[in-house]
Amino acid sequence: MLNSLRKKAVAVAISASPCLHGAIFLASTFASGAALADISDTIKPFVAATYSYDDNLMRLPDVVPGFSGPRSDTSKMLQAGFLFNRPIGRQILTGQAKWSKVSFNRFSQFDYDGKDYLADLEWHIANHLEGHVGASYSQSLTPFNDFQSTLRNLRTERQEYLNGAWRFHPSWRVRGGLSRNRYSYDLPSQAFSNWTEDATEFGVDYLAPSNSRIGLQLRHLNGNYPNRNAFDTSIYGNGYTQDEIKANVYWELSGITQMEFLGGWVRHRNSLLSGHDASGTNGRLSVYWKPLGKVNFTGVVWREFGSVDNSLVTSSLNTGASVGTTWAATSKVSVDAQLRQERRDFSAVSGLVLPGDGRDTTRTASLGATYAPHPKVQLGVRLFHERRDGVAIVDSGGYRAKGISFNGSVQF
Question: How many CB atoms lie within 10 A of CB 375?
Answer without folding.
Answer: 10
